[in-house]
Amino acid sequence: MIDFSQLDKLIHEKGRLAIMTLLASRAAPWPFQDLKSQLDMSDGNLITHLRTLEKADFIAGEKFTGDGRPQTLYTLTPTGRRAFVAYLAVLEKILDLGK
Hints:
By secondary structure, this protein is of the alpha+beta class. The chain is built from five helices and three strands. The chain has one domain (about 5-99): Orthogonal Bundle (Arc Repressor Mutant, subunit A). The protein is elongated, with a radius of gyration of 15 Å. The two termini are about 15 Å apart.
């Protein structure tokens, strides 16, 4: 039987799962505005989820001034990538059980 407590509750929330999935989908960092646009989230909602993931060391944000405007680029940390891979492994077990 699957131990559902192995699902990482931090990642499992819909907004954070979406963020982690996007960050895992490419090696290049994601600018805040691109994440916001892709996920159709408000600034406040996205920032709250990003802060939660940063606090857990799952993502890292790097601030810089590109074209005169401050931007923040987000990437998965090695800890975040390991947590995401482990999360997906549990989901795969759940899917296999349901087949």
